[in-house]
Amino acid sequence: MKKLALYLKEYRKECVLGPLFKMLEASFELFVPLVVASIIDVGIANGDGGYILRMCGLLVLLGAVGLVSSVTAQYFAAKAAVGFAAKLKSALFAHIQSLSYTEIDTLGTSTMITRMTSDVNQVQSGVNLVLRLFLRSPFVVLGAMVMAFTIDARIALIFAAAIIALSIVVFGIMLISIPLYKKVQNRLDGVLGATRSNLTGVRVIRAFAREPQEIGAFTEKNEALAKTQRFVGRISALMNPLTYVLINAAIIWLIWAGAVRVDTGLLTQGEVVALYNYMSQILVELIKLANLIITITKSAACANRIAGVFEIRSSAVNGSRTEVAPDVETVRFDNVNLRYHGAAGDSLTGIDFTAKRGDTIGVIGGTGSGKSSLVNLIPRFYDATGGRVLVDGVDVREYDLHALREKIGVVPQHAVLFKGTIRENIRWGKPDASDQEIMQALETAQAMDVLRAKPQGLDTLIEQGGRNLSGGQRQRLTIARALVRKPEILILDDSASALDYATDARLRQAIRKTDATVFIVSQRASSIMYADKIIVLDDGVAVGTGTHEQLMQSCAVYQEIYYSQFPKEERA
Question: Which parts of the chain register pLDDT below 50?
């Protein structure tokens, strides 16, 4: 929690004023039993109606001032807590964005979502309650006990015994339930992970009629979470009945002892009522304090989980190079190896080739051969674990990440579009792109027919994930988004798989007219057969490098891919 306290720095005033106003409210609350006692002992005993009215007016005044103090304290506490959570979420999101794919893969998407939503909300609640109750509840408990001693020291010993017994019950239950709450949070991670997995893969689940199995697996995890929550809930539920039994026993003891003292003339009836009120205040505040400590403990656990994310440092250390003279060899792989974090073996081994400026490089191979892994090394989504990847003659690890990625346009395998207009989506590639530049990028990406089919043109609204577009339309718009920035290096990672052969051919022809060095990752031989150089991968190893004609003569893996995709008559 201490590591996150820096996000409260801008709310120091609120962090001081909130508790102070709560203390002020508590102070007025402690005077109420004394006023009630005076009404009974003086006003009612003497039949003085005017005194009773004056004291009732004083009670109303104390209540009004307490209400104003409480509302003011709540305002400052809420302002500090909400502001703190907003800054924490922004910082956490920015930090996650700075991590490389290695750390994101290790953490897991569901875990990061839980940290940014559930965990931050829990910490926000903790901050709010601490500012409101952390000083108030102990102050009222101790204050009520002190006030009881000022009335009658012997009777006040009942308070001391009741507070000790209540503390044992309250904090005993708290110590048992705290570890269980941590277990609940961990199981919540599992449920969120299963939910995200099902929602992401819903098409595949339905295609293979796996709904019953997935529902069963989700139900099992959900039931485990519910079982733990019910168990900890039962333990926590013991708090109210046990504390009420203890406090009522103490009240009975108090009234019995008070009656004896009243009968002997050592106490007045009003003082007994005041002592009863102080006992009730102690009960309420101890329960509040116990709930506060449980909330603080849960918040501290969540804060540690959030701090754990902040402690993760990106394995992609930012370099300092921003500008270099363009090199004839735009991209060079120098005996590159890649092993993913925690993997038993290398995903890429001994990759060595050169791409000259303006070349089109085709990358082909079977599923899992390492095609995407290879091109992900160029923008440093992952770092090579052996060898070097050079862009314009400079190792990519020496570049400033922003400067490096400004040179590169990437179209990933999964076409991702965001909720907004076509114009806004294309401007992700270049925020200041003019409509003319956007139209040019759409034309190169063979996406003008998508635009012509929409009456609103560039102002056409795209739903989240591009749900109102076909797969081919989504792919062409994502290609246009990469092209609008006019990158020096363009990476098309199997990004034309949903296009028909004619559109794919026109797209490749249009891209060749640009000055970019183009990397085309594909499982289609037709998509890369006209490339200047083709890299054939098999289980992470480049088993062939050359033109289509050269590979057809020398590479058995390439021949197998090609012959599996073209009928005999076309081959002839």
Answer: 569, 572
The dihedral sign for the CA sequence 94, 97, 99, 104: positive
Q: Domain 2-311 maps to which CATH number in 1.20.1560.10, 3.40.640.10, 1.10.357.20, 3.10.310.10? A: 1.20.1560.10
Q: Rg of the chain over CA atoms, in angstroms? A: 35
Domains of the chain by residue range:
2-311, 327-407+489-497+520-572, 408-486
From start to end of 21-115, where are the E strands?
none
pLDDT value at residue 533: 93
Q: Say if CB 425 and CB 444 are below 8 A apart.
A: no
Q: Where are the alpha helices (DSSP H) in 484-567?
A: 501-512, 525-528, 548-554, 556-565
Closest CA relative to residue 331, chosen from 359, 291, 350: 359
- β-strand pairing of 489-493 with 408-411: parallel
The dihedrals phi and psi of 350, each to the nearest 5 degrees, come to: 60, 40
**pLDDT tens-digit series, residues 496-530:** 877 888 888 888 889 888 888 999 998 888 888 88
What one-character DSSP code corresponds to residue 412? -
* Cβ atoms 327, 392 nearer than 8 A: yes
Say if residues 119 and 188 touch (Cβ distance below 8 Å): no
Alpha carbon distance 507, 448 (integer Å): 12
386-391 β-sheet, strand order: 394-395, 386-391, 329-338, 348-356, 541-546, 533-538, 360-365, 517-521, 489-493, 408-411
- The reported pLDDT for the residue numbered 424 is 92
Q: Which residue type, as a one-letter code, is found at position 260?
A: V
Give Cα separations from 174 to 225, 282, 456 (angstroms): 20, 18, 60
pLDDT of 79: 92
CA distance readout (Å), 519 to 291, 333, 491, 510, 558: 59, 13, 5, 14, 17
Please count the CA atoms within 13 angstroms of the CA of 245 that sit on its side-chain side. Answer: 8
Start-to-end C-alpha separation, the chain: 71
Q: Which CATH superfamily does the domain covering 408-486 fall into?
A: P-loop containing nucleotide triphosphate hydrolases (3.40.50.300)
